[in-house]
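Here is the promised in-class demo. Please do not try to memorize the tokens; focus on the logic of going from shape to residues.
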């Protein structure tokens, strides 16, 4: 598809994103929908406008990197993580290392940090929060959220972990201190290791199957033995054992 290849080259040049490992049909559909919603005739017209409009360029990047999340997204999955894995981990180990891969605006790493302090207030916890989009990371580092963005946070957690501001809410310093931010491309950058828990939820849904397999192998290699990979509610790894992981309940995979 010549038009798609032309758009993919422009995206790599303008945004630094290599679409060769994304599913073309799904990306093409999203790009066309994005262009239409902004009154542009086609992806070529979109690319031309993106070259001139910084705000549109950022919105296009956000769409491609799927920066959509919230605190405690899919609460039942977080409850399962806490009861089955996170609580035993935090109460039995001297320290815990966690990676939020594709952290977007910081909802996930701060959710993890809040849970860690509820479970084990004194256990040393290192949370690496990484994302491809440096602009999104700069916003996440500010650790401030609007009232609308706080929808998933209970009043008790707001009182304990946030400070009320005129413009919204700020994560308290002791929670911010648990998180280390880093720009990282899951498809090409080296992976830090070892981790007790890796969270990569609803991040790779548009990757090709080959790219997902390679990524899951790298995640497995970055986990400690018995470490856990936590995926999104609708995600699964059909060939888990071939990439070095074992299913351990819905959305959870262990490194044996």
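The designed amino acids, position by position:
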């Amino acid at each position: 598809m010549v038009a798609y290849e032309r758009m993919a080259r422009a995206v790599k040049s303008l945004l630094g994103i290599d679409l060769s490992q994304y599913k073309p049909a799904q990306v093409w559909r999203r790009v066309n929908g994005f262009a239409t919603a902004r009154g542009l005739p086609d992806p070529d017209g979109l690319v031309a406008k993106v070259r001139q409009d910084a705000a549109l360029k950022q919105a296009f990047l956000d769409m491609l990197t799927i920066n959509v999340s919230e605190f405690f997204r899919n609460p039942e999955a977080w409850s399962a993580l806490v009861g089955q894995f996170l609580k035993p981990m935090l109460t039995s180990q001297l320290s815990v290392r966690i990676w939020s891969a594709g952290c977007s605006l910081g909802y996930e790493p701060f959710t993890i940090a809040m849970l860690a302090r509820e479970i084990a207030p004194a256990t040393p916890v290192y949370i690496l929060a990484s994302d491809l989009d440096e602009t999104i990371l700069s916003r996440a580092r500010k650790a401030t959220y609007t009232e609308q963005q706080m929808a998933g946070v209970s009043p008790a957690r707001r009182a304990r972990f946030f400070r009320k501001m005129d413009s919204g809410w700020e994560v308290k310093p002791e929670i911010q201190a648990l998180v280390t931010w880093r720009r990282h491309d899951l498809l090409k950058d080296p992976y830090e290791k070892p981790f007790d828990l890796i969270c990569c939820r609803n991040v790779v849904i548009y990757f090709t199957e080959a790219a997902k397999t390679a990524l899951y192998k790298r995640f497995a290699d970055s986990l400690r033995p018995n470490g856990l990979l936590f995926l999104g509610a609708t995600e699964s790894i059909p060939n888990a054992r071939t990439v070095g992981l074992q299913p351990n309940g819905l959305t959870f995979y262990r490194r044996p």
